[in-house]
Amino acid sequence: MSEDTGGKYYYVVDPSDLEPAFQHVSDDLRTQYLLGYYAPSDGDGSFRRIKVTLASTPAAMATSCATAPDTFPTQNSAAELSCISWRTYTDLECGGNMRIGPGTRRQVWIQFAIVAALAIAAAHTMWAQPTNAGAPSNLAGSWQGTLQVGAGQRLVLKIRHEGAEWKGVAYNLDDPYQAYEGRNTTQMSFDGSTLQFAIAPIDLTFEGKLSADGGSVVGAAIQAGQPHPLTLVRAEGDAAWAIPEPQKAMATTADPDWEVVTVKPTDPTVMNASTGMEGRQFVLTNRSVETLFLMGYSVHKKQIANAPEWARTDRWDVRGVLDVPGQPSLPQMQSLIRKLLAERFGLVTHMEKREMEVYALKLAKGGQKMTLSAGDPNGVPNENDRENGGQRTMQATNISPAEFALMMTYFMDRPVVDQTGLTGRYDFQWKYTFDEMHVPTDGTAAPSVFTAIEEQLGLKLEPVRATTDVMVLDKLERPGKN
Question: How many CB atoms lie within 10 A of CB 303?
Answer without folding.
Answer: 23
